[in-house]
Amino acid sequence: MSPPIPVYSKKEIDNTYKKFLKDDDANCTLYSLIQNQCTFNGSEIICLPFKRLFTRCLRPKDKTTTEPRYQLIEITDETCNDYFKFNQFYQKQTGSGDDLLEKFLKADEIMRKVYQDEMNHSD
Fold this sequence. Notes:
- InterPro entries: Mitochondr_Som1.
- By secondary structure, the chain is an alpha+beta fold.
- It has one domain.
- It has helices at about 10-15, 85-95, 100-120; strands spanning about 30-40, 45-60, 70-75.
- The protein has a 3-stranded antiparallel β-sheet.
- The longest helix has 22 residues, at about 100-120.
- The protein is elongated.
């Protein structure tokens, strides 16, 4: 599970963390992780990957601690997850012409209806 980190817009990140985020800053390290959002259509589990990017920057020293302190900042934006390219890769790997995003959304709708039906019949 990823760490609990708030998600900010690019403008908010630039305004809030500009002292940490310098293009040539050797005190920052880039990290990424892939999370999958999955759903079930009754016969198969369909998962979409979601790439998240973080930068971990050394905070300036202060009087309260002698240990190094780091600031973890999520910098994921719309360019990190290109589903068109991913779908092309998926189709090539599976040999199918299926659109994975479309398949996922249809399966998610099926699951939503199943949950709603169960909730309506549980009364």
